[in-house]
Design brief:
214 residues; 8 helices; seven-stranded mixed sheet; single chain; alpha/beta; two-stranded antiparallel ribbon
């Protein structure tokens, strides 16, 4: 299948440079979140996942890059962690710098897993990089592979889709109400929790959400 413009960019040198800038250990990822939102990613994960998922439940991150989010979940005791990443360089780096994670090369548009294979499928800053004209293909694949829960952490806007120039390039970054996209598309989806967070140093906002399927 031919790659989209965004897939071409993220699987090439531009994506490689992003990977090299974002090699974060779990403690560094928590510090980044604390600086951006005043709360750690570990605390957010506990808020959304405690009492919802068991530590042995099967979890997939779509667009995992080098596995920062998965590695943090591992430090929290989650043990059945999987990732899909379109950039081969990031997959290689992830396999060298982490252990106990199942990270494979693949696209959000064609996830290499059976229906309902995972207890939860989530993204973190990935749907924002998929064109509005292609987003439904990714939503469909995430929904297909999730048996129970769909999670996400993405840029947020209540005004519909807004394109943002990203490092001098157009058509690489958008913000919208991503949980609403899932709810509008899938009648079996129910919103369990949604948290909109303003950045500490500007007025931009991100959203973390958890949906129940079925």
């Amino acid at each position: 299948m031919a790659k989209t413009k965004q897939e071409e960019v993220w699987s090439g040198e531009f994506g490689k440079d992003y990977t090299d800038r974002n090699l974060l250990a779990p403690a560094e990822l928590d510090s980044l979140y604390e600086g951006n939102y005043g709360i750690s990613r570990t605390s957010l994960n506990k808020e959304f996942l405690d009492g919802v998922l068991e530590k042995y439940d099967r979890i997939l991150e779509v667009g995992c890059n080098v596995g920062n989010q998965l590695d943090l979940l591992k430090t929290m005791g989650y043990s059945n962690l999987w990732g899909v990443e379109i950039q081969s360089y990031a997959v290689e780096v992830a396999r060298k710098r982490t252990s106990g994670l199942n990270i494979v090369l693949g696209s959000a548009f064609d996830l290499p897993f059976k229906d309902d294979f995972f207890d939860m499928v989530f993204t973190a800053g990935v749907l924002i990089h998929i064109s509005p004209s292609d987003i439904n293909k990714a939503l469909d694949e995430i929904h297909r592979c999730a048996a129970s829960y769909i999670g996400g952490f993405e840029y947020y806007s209540e005004k519909g889709y807004e394109m943002i120039n990203y490092r001098g390039k157009d058509d690489l970054l958008w913000k919208t109400d991503f949980p609403k996209l899932f709810l509008d598309r899938f009648p079996d989806a129910k919103l369990l929790k949604k948290k909109v967070m303003k950045y500490t140093n500007n007025d931009n906002r991100d959203v973390m959400y958890l949906l129940k399927k079925g």
